Amino acid sequence: MPSAGYALDTIAELLAIPPAERTDKMAFLIKEHRAWFTFDAFTNIPTPGSYSPNEGSGLWQQTGGTMGFQDASSVAITGGFISGIAALEISSGGTGANNAAEARNNLGISLIGHNYQVNGGFYSALAGTSFSAVGRTIEMWNNATFGTGGAATTSRQSFTAGQANVPGNPKFFWRWSQTTGGTITNPELQSAIENAETLAGEYATVSFWAKAANNLQVSFGIRQVFGTGGSPSASVDTGLQTFENTSNWQKFTYTLLMPSVAGKTFGTDANSSLLRLRWVFPLSSTFTFDLADVKFEAGEIDTPVERLYDYDAWRIARYYQSLRPSARFVAAAANHIGEVPIPIQRIMRNTPAATLVNGGARVNQAAGYPATGSVTSAGGRFLISAAAAGDCYALAPETLILDARL
């Protein structure tokens, strides 16, 4: 009989120990496994890493050793973590990091989430750069209200080149200057994101940079609007989050579980539902509030803002286009009409409102012309009509605005 605590060469030697000589907690080091096995006299139910002698009660169970010497078919890992392992350097095929964030940084990988907020950097200003009335302003933004009896001017401002207060070299920010405090109803800035189903029932993260001329408490929230036409469900607001602004730029980040739209009725007008990001200002106050780099993305972490101006311009064209149509022909008589297709950039959200502004070089035009005809989300016609026989034209800088904003 081998003495307990000594080494045996094989499991077979362990199993050959007579039943009468086995005692509870007897242990041997088995060389072929390079692991300790201990006898448990009170159970005969095999488990991973155990060996049953099949004589009487009890079994031998591995109680020590290293994973590297275990029988692969007897390894069961159900949780935990491995510690004490040095990071594998990049030169050896690793990342040189101990976590995902370090790995991305070491490998030069930037994780950037899709920004559902079109024109969150205020890059596009086809509709203008300064507004003193309630309603739509720069593309995808809205002066919702100045408050009862209030007055304000909102405008796009430029960052100084090379400033380091807001990272990533943004070009522009938005300014709200409340010159007369509103009462009863709070002044409110809103943005628009098409489709109330956006990230519904999922985690979303909102991030933005903000500051104020003086310390200012502002509330932020999100509203699901279920569209127009028919009998859509009432809008749903998330709880407002309050944040404190100082005279220095600060980044604010909010993660929330977006409400589900299960059971909601959407309006019958196509593509009319939306989300409203909302900045709600205090009553009876005058203030200046600045906002930059607004991002709304999926998930529970905020990621950097990506500055793809050509892509932003393409996205904005779904809602707002400023075009330069022109037409010219020689009319044989008065009231002869010439037409050309509207040079639309992309199919729009729905049928846009068409407005001709900034009349260009107009010659020999009948009353009411130039004009537009048969305008839809996919295009239309630009029309001119001769007041008399002869050369008839309307040329640049003729400007046609197509507005399909939310």
What distance separates the N and C termini? 88 Å
Q: What is the total tally of β strands?
A: 27
Q: Which spans of ≥5 residues are poorly predicted at pLDDT below 50?
A: none
Oligomerization: single chain
What's the overall geometry? elongated
What series of H and E elements makes up the topology? EHEEEEHEEEEEEEEEEEEEHEEEEEEEEE
Beta-strand content bin: 35-45%
Main sheet: strands, sense, barrel: 7 strands, antiparallel
Number of helices: 3
Rounded mean pLDDT is: 89
- Portion in helices: under 10%
Rg (CA only): 36 Å
Helical/strand content category? mainly beta
Architecture blueprint of SSEs:
Blueprint: E1 7-8, H1 11-15, E2 27-30, E3 35-40, E4 50-51, E5 59-65, H2 100-107, E6 130-131, E7 135-136, E8 141-145, E9 151-158, E10 172-180, E11 188-194, E12 203-212, E13 216-225, E14 236-237, E15 241-245, E16 250-257, E17 274-280, E18 287-298, H3 309-316, E19 320-323, E20 327-331, E21 337-341, E22 353-357, E23 361-363, E24 371-376, E25 379-385, E26 390-395, E27 399-403
Parallel strand pairs: 1-2
Antiparallel strand pairs: 2-3, 3-5, 4-5, 6-9, 7-8, 8-11, 9-10, 10-18, 11-17, 12-16, 12-18, 13-14, 13-15, 13-17, 19-27, 20-26, 21-25, 22-27, 23-26, 24-25
